[in-house]
Amino acid sequence: MVMSLKGKRIVLGITGSIAAYKSAILIRLLVKKGAEVQVVITPAGKEFITPVTLSALSGKPVISEFFATGDGTWHSHVELGQWADLMIVAPATATTLAKMAGGMADNMLITTYLSMPPSVPIFAAPAMDLDMFVHPTTQRNLDQLKSDGVHIIDPVEGELASHLEGKGRMEEPENIVAMIEDYFIDGVHHRTEHKVTRGYHEATHNGDKKKILITAGPTYERIDPVRYIGNFSSGKMGFAIAEECAARGGEVLLIAGPTSLSVHHPNITRVDVESAQEMLDAALQAFPDVDGAILSAAVADYRPQQASGEKIKRDEEGAITLSLLPNPDIAATLGKIKKPGQRIVGFALETTNEEANALKKLKKKNFDLIVLNSLKDEGAGFGHDTNKVTIISRNGSKRSFELKSKEEVAKDIVDATFVAMLDNHSE
Ligand code: CTP
Fold first, then answer.
1. Helices in 224-269 by DSSP H: which ranges?
2. For position 164, what pLDDT does the model report?
3. Which of the 8 DSSP states describes residue 298?
């Protein structure tokens, strides 16, 4: 079995439906694929399947009450929100869907749902009788949840607990697991609901799309037709940020230096450039119309004074000297023309006095946030699929994150960016 969900932390919400027996199979499949599963069950759910079965399968105590009845330990729904990579409610009854849609936090499952940070995707697999499913109330609640960014896994047609035939059977666990795998493997461009990822942006600006400019990758500064000055930047971090912004409903303009990466989300417009000057020109043209810019490109600091039109021949006499001119600083240029309401997020790669230097850079370039990578951290920065960052804001507040995949880091960066976009007090 491929451990496609290795290390993924999944909160499984179970509610009071005959289909709760399928949750046991769901846990087994998720665990076999390498996921950690934490079950949160409603009081009604326990009438249909016992916590003993569920905890045996998941290898974790099942959470149901706000407090452990034995010793009064508080079960923190907030901590569950911090822990989870994904939450799925399966089966989701009409009542639970209504409570989710209306924010009726009268049990542990709903408080857990409400505590999920915007970056954590939520899935719900409804299960109910066909009349209940087609009822306008249920449909209205489903519409509300979709517009809140919840991925609804449509029930399938078949024989129902009432022995009636129709649409209302919970999707089979194998198919649910395949959807979760798709989500993690193929990432953001497979989120097909009309409002996809939940985000601060969607939570507060329903439907209104933020325009975001992103620079990514290296720049190449030509020496002659076959040689250049460049750096080892792969562009992965910037491309992951672009996908994440687009998945949350943003309109993204991605200005990319030379890289072999491709974009997936239809809301990303890509402009390919080669040199720092070309990147600056493209950025200056777009900047007046955007709400924010995330500047992840590793721009070459210098370029040859004169790019030779002909291939430079090897000089048998020995060394040659290249005269270099400083390149324009794209970030500082945009920082100077930034209008109230616009936000700029920059990056810093530091080796010593990391935080102090990053904060200095933030002020100098008029950023709102700066994402600090330390070269001292293994697995961070250029060429890796992982990154370890600290995000520092204008007022000096900072949040350090553990080493994660660049896709996960992108979520943290986009969360912080969207929060900064909402915060009008940081001007
Ligand atoms: N940047 C830019 N244009 C440049 C140089 C940098 O837009 N010509 C942006 C980068 O995209 C990044 C930030 O500015 O967001 C990095 O600033 P920089 O001064 O280059 O910092 P470091 O890369 O950390 O390097 P150094 O400390 O050596 O200056």
1. 236-247
2. 79
3. B
Ligand 1: distance of its center to the CA of 338 in Å?
A: 17
The predicted model scores a pTM of 0.58
- Report DSSP letters for 61-92, one per residue: PPB-SSB-TTT--B--HHHHHHH-SEEEEEEE
CA–CA distance, 364 with 377 (Å, rounded to integer): 25
Q: What pLDDT does 317 receive?
A: 78
Please name the residues in contact with 230: beta carbons below 8 A apart, sequence gap of 6 or more: 218, 219, 220, 221, 258, 300
Helix (H, G, I), strand (E, B) or coil at 252: strand
Residues 33/7, Cβ–Cβ less than 8 Å: no
If 0-12 CB within 10 Å is exposed, 13-18 middle and 19+ buried, where does residue 368 land? Answer: buried
Q: Which CATH number fits domain 201-304+323-426: 3.40.50.2000, 3.10.20.740, 3.30.450.20, 3.40.50.10300?
A: 3.40.50.10300
Q: Do domains 9-192 and 201-304+323-426 have the same CATH topology?
A: yes
Place of tokens 């953001």: 188
Atom of ligand 1 nearest to the CA of 276: 8
**Cα(357) to centroid(ligand 1), Å:** 12
C-alpha separations of 113 from 81, 219, 332 in Å: 8, 43, 41
Known catalytic residue: 231? yes
91 preceded by a cis bond (ω within 30 of 0):
yes
- Taking the chain (427 residues) in runs of 10, the rounded mean pLDDT of each run is 84 96 96 96 96 96 82 75 94 98 96 92 94 94 91 88 83 92 58 34 44 97 97 94 91 96 92 97 97 97 95 84 96 97 95 92 97 81 84 87 91 89 59
Sign of CA dihedral 230, 231, 236, 237: negative
* Fold for the domain defined by 9-192: Rossmann fold (3.40.50)
Instruction: State the residue for tokens 């799925």.
Output: 88
> What distance in angstroms lies between residue 204's CA and the mean position of ligand 1's atoms?
32
Residue 105: CA atoms inside 13 Å, Cβ hemisphere, count?
A: 8
Strand ranges (DSSP E) for 62-150? Answer: 86-92, 122-126
The token pair at 340 is 């109230």
What are the sequence ranges of the domains in the chain? 9-192, 201-304+323-426
